[in-house]
Structure formats: structure tokens, C-alpha cells
Amino acid sequence: MTQQVLNAIFIGSIYALFAVGYTLVFGVLDVLNLAHSAVFMLGAVITYSLVALHGMPFLPAAIIAILVCGLLGLLIEFVALRPLRRRNAPPISALISTIGLALIFVAIVEQATPGTLFGWLWQDGANSVRFPAGTVPNPTYHLAGLTIEGTKLGILITSVVLMLVLGYVIRYTQIGRALRAVAENRRAATLLGINVDRIFASTLFLSSALGGLAGLLFGLAISDIGPYIGRDQVELKGLAVIVLGGMGSIPGAVLGGYLLGLIEVLAFVRFGSNVEAGVAFAALFLVLVLRPQGLFGARLRERL
Amino acid sequence: MRSTARGITIALALALAACGGTTSGGNGTTSYQGKTIQLGAILSLTGAGGVYGPSSKNGADLAVEIINKSGGVNGAKISLDTRDDASDKAQSAQVAQTLIQQGNLLALLGPTLSNSAVAVHPLAESFKIPILAVSTTGINIVPNCNAPSTVPCKYVFRDSLGEETAIPTNIKIYAAKAHPKTGVLMVANDDKFSSDGGKIVQNTVGQYGITLVDTVAFSKTTADFATPVTRALQKKPDVMFITSLGGIPATIMIEARKQGFTGQFLGGNGFNTAKVSKQAGAAGVGAESGSAWYLDNTFPSNAEFVKAYRDKYKSDPDQFAAQGYAAILILADAAKRANLTFSDIAGDRNRLRDAMETVNIQTPLGPFQFTSTHDVRQTVWVILMDGKGGFNLLASVSPS
To answer: Cβ B46–A126 below 8 Å, yes or no?
Structure first.
């Protein structure tokens, strides 16, 4: 049982990290960025590509992948969000245009085989792959009947540290204050001299970099890298997590991530896989009925 | 020079087959000069079945190319129209519908997944178009494609070794060697191929004195196997049966070894691709499964296929490529003996169907015939993962 709780904490960290980026965009821009799961996937794919196809060591590859994912965030902003915002399109239009971008990102990877246009990025089409053995040292400890993997421990630490840093940035720095101001009231923020467009762009960059990081950590720990990992593993779950935690709330997303991990694992252990997803979404439903604003969402309090 | 030799082998194989067929009435002399035999294929090139579909396609394409280069089927060229069903059952049925409604296809191949076959095969049966399954291994693919109805389907054939043969053969061989007492089954229960495999394991182990101490079911989209594996290992089983698709068997093996499992992995067709063996790496060494085909078999119809495949694709074929390749040889042989008219498509489909029942040829899978229920009758090759992306042959079991 203790092993299962550990398993839950590890997978929960990834859910949390993914959901933090998801909720950040929602909190600031008021749109759901459904391309977030595709960026998550690309974070894993780009790192894998640099390591396995281009022979780069893991750490620089990971840093490049995170930066590229950040830039993809800018692409999402400039292609899928900003033009619509300029025309005062309703948020649902932005939601659809991000789905479009997500489909394009997934298709690029899914169709890539050696010799095709994107063969330099990905060569395995629809298949999933894993990092070559020994990409990062992965000592496995057996303590009191428990199995603890080095990489998973590293991921737990990385996620917690990053989420604390993000919390600090948002609470106590200039850019964080600007972010919160924009989230609170776009027009008032403009009147205060905040460049709202720039804040939007930085939000997308930050959110997508986090999404990419979550993706590459997922690829490392779960050993499943392929075009569908975003769609199958985190897209709906991420949505569940941010609703559970309260739309737009960062601590909510973190707590929601760990909670979903725990609910899933316990449901699996107790009832088996048939009801695993069912139990998770039943919990979500319960939260919506009892606390529509989510666990951490405040009805009128400031956002983020 | 190379291609001539290849052509001769194929021609020989076809001639041999034609001899076998004479008893059933085909004379094999009708000239099809200038005609085209149009075939369609519904394969999973993307999605969960994307591990298998592209191999089937490569194998089939290779056979088409070789046959066309060496004079075709009684002079007729073969054309193969392959469509992707994205591993989705509904899309598979839709693609099949489109292909059938073109109205000019003589026969179909596929679909890749048993899950989709349940939708596609009855469709082909009702339109009276022969369909040859090249990778589906679940229960009730042939003959009763309309299960639970037990009326045998007349137009559905399969050249892929069913799990009902592969899994029990493998368990029998392993049990005779190692006498395991306890086992645990890991099964994806939202996929027909996987859950059928699970049922077969459950029905088989008892005969060999193995007690199934736990069955751990999971979804085919599961990625994190820490939780299922932790549960499976709680009862300390001697062997772990894995019946699942795609990269999942490899992921489970790696996770189980990390968590300290030292027992044996046993499986079925889900183990039998180089990709799975490669992904499993060191964790998979010795993982044992029943296979329809073995890479290093040296009989000519396989050696020739492997060489041609390596020349064309610069990589090793796998079981699915061999089955795709064999499918085209089977259809070509049947077409050769069917006295096709190329004007009456419905009649031609019936004539082809009749000729398929008496196919008797050499393929990369070994000597090939259909049983009376349109299933494959062939040798089972019991293979072990070698930890480097390949397999070693442990035993071969001839059809009873």
C-alpha cells in the first residue's frame, strides 16, 4: 500500500506540473489553451529527438526543449489567440483555434518517418519510444520493501521546487504583480500602464515551458514518448485537475494534481481499472456539485 | 540478377501452388494479359495499432512489387490501395465501406486490429467480397465473424496465427520445461485482442498445473504501470502473463524488473515485434511467446522474403510484414487459378473465394493452407526475446 501511495505521488507531480501551466493561461487570459497537451507531448518528443537522434546529452537537450516549448507558447499566442482577441471573438473561438493547433502539432509528429519533412524531429510515426538506456542515471533503491527510482525522485523534487518558485514569482515580483493585475481586470491593468499584450505573451511562454517540462519528465519517468501522450494521458485529466482545484488557481492545480493521482491509484487498488477513470471523474462531479468554484477557487477573491 | 532470382522463386512457388490446386478444378492457364487485379487494404498505420499496420503494408507492398516485376498473375498486374483506419473501430468500418463501394476491388486485406475486424468483416461478408485478415488474432475472427451468431462467414479468411493457438502452445512448452506453480495475468481489458488473450490464458493455465493468483486489468491507454505492476507482484508469482498491445508489454517488463520481479514473462502475438523486443531491452531477455514466423528460418520462401525486405526497406521484417507478404502470395495464387473474367466483379469475387479455400503454397510463414474454417494451418515458432531487439528460436510445433 505504501508503494502505491508513492506511485500516486510521482504521477501526481506530473499532473500538477502540467495543470499549473494549464491553469495559468486560464487565469490570465480567460481562455482554455487546449494546445497545452500537444506542447506537453512536444516537450517529450523534442528532448527525445535531441538525445536519441542528434546525440546530445540529456541536460542541454532538456533545456533546449523547454525553451522551444516556450516559443511554441508564443506561436499559440500569435497564431491562435491574438488575432481572435483583436476581433473581440468570444473565448470559445480561441478554444477551437487552440484545438486546431494541437491537431497540427500531433499530426506533425504522427506522420513523421525517416526521409519525410519532419524526419529530423521524429522517426517513429505513431509508435511510442523511450529514452535510450543510460540517458540519465537511474539508481533504483529498495527500502523496506519499497521501490524508489532515482528519476522519479528527481521529478518529484523538480516539480515541487518549480511550483514553489512559480508561486514566489507570482506573489512577490513585478511581473507577478502585473500578471495578477491583468488576471483581475484587463482594462484596469491597461490603464495602470501594464502592456497587456506582453503579459499575455509571457504567460503563454511560461505556461508552455512548464507544459514542455512536464512532458519531458513524463517521458523520462513513464518511458512512454509518442504523438498521443498528451491527448491520452493528460489532456482531460489536466482539465479535471484544474476544475478540481479551482479554475485559475495555482495552489489549487498543484493540490488537484496530487489529489487526482491519489484518487486514481486508490481506485485502481480498491476497485480495479474498470472504474479507475470513473472514480476520478465521479470525484470531480462531487466537487462541482458541492463546491462549484473548486477546492481553492474563490468566488470573488483575486485570481492566480 | 537478384530480382531475376527472386522472380524465379516466386514463379516456382506459384507454379507449385497451381499444381496443388489442379485437383480442385483450377487450370491456371487463362491469360489475364493487360488486366489489373485491384485489391484494397484497411490497416492501422496510426494509433495504437501503428506498431503493426506499417509492417503489414510494407510486406504486402513488397509482394505486389515482386509479383508485378516477374510478370504478374497470368499477365495481370496487382494494384493495392491501402487506407489507414487510425486504429479506430468506427473509422475502420467507414474506410471499408468506402473501399467496397468503389465497386472494382476483387478482395480486401485487414483490418489490423481484432477490435476493428468485428465491424469490418461482417460488412465484407454481407457485400460478398473476400477479405483476408493479416494480423487479427482474437477469438471469433474466423469462421463466425458475426459472433455470437455461429453461422460461418463464407468470405472471411485469415493468415495470421490466432492467439487460441499461439498462447496455449507457448504455455505448454514453458510448463514442460520449468513447471511453474503460480502466475499472474496482466491484461488490457478495453481491447478485443488483449482481453481475448487474457481469456485464453485463464482457460489454459489449469491444464498445466499453474494457479492464476491474480488478474490485473488495465486500459490500453495506461502509461504509468507502477500501480498495476505493484499490485501484480504482491502475490509473488512465478510467471507473469502479459496480453496487451503496442509498447505496453515492454513497459510492463521494465517496470516489473525495476520492482524486483525475477520470474518469467509469457505472452502471445503482442510480444512478436522487433520494436517490443527492442523497447524491453535487457528487461525482456528470455520473454517467451508463440509466433507465426521467425526471422532466421532458412527455408527458401522465408530467406528470399527476408533478403528482399532488407534490400527494399533497409531494416529487418517482422511477423506482421511476413503475414502481409504471405497474404498477397495467397491472393495471387488464388487469382491465378480462379479463371477471372474481369467483367463480372461479383462473379470474380466468388471465384476468387472458392480458389482461396484450396490455397497450398510456400510462404515466409512456412507451408501454408487454410483449415476448413478459413483459419491458418501452420507451424508455431516459440521464440525468446534476446534483449537486443531480436528473438531466438526455442522450439517449433507443427500443426496437429
So the answer is: yes
